[in-house]
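A reminder from the course coordinator: this example appears on the midterm review sheet, so study it carefully.

Given structure:
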């Protein structure tokens, strides 16, 4: 008799699970909708645009520093646009003033001619 009761209990449990078959799918869809709506709200907020928007502070500072690093070969940032002119062959990325030599590797002796 106890075995029969246990079997009936398992059948009832199986029946309840089959009735709730699509519940997890619905829960995942609702969770996805909530996450997307929160992300959309954050991305469209004015504070987010001020920081990471097209002309945001982070983008503006990153652009200024990248332009300075590319132009001068040194880490830094210009506060305002400026023109810097170096004499020929004296650019800081080429010429090491403290050593009085170029940063580039060159042979000690000239290569033999043909």
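Designed residues:
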């Amino acid at each position: 008799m106890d075995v029969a009761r246990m079997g009936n209990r398992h059948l009832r449990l199986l029946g309840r699970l089959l009735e709730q078959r699509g519940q997890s799918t619905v829960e995942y869809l609702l969770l996805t909708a909530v996450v997307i709506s929160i992300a959309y709200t954050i991305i469209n907020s004015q504070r987010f645009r001020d920081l990471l928007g097209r002309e945001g502070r982070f983008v503006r500072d990153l652009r200024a520093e990248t332009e300075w690093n590319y132009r001068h070969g040194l880490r830094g940032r210009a506060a305002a646009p400026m023109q810097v002119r170096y004499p020929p062959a004296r650019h800081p990325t080429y010429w090491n003033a403290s050593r009085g030599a170029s940063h580039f590797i060159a042979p000690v002796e000239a290569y033999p001619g043909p």
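The two ends are 105 Å apart (CA to CA). The chain has a mean pLDDT of 76.
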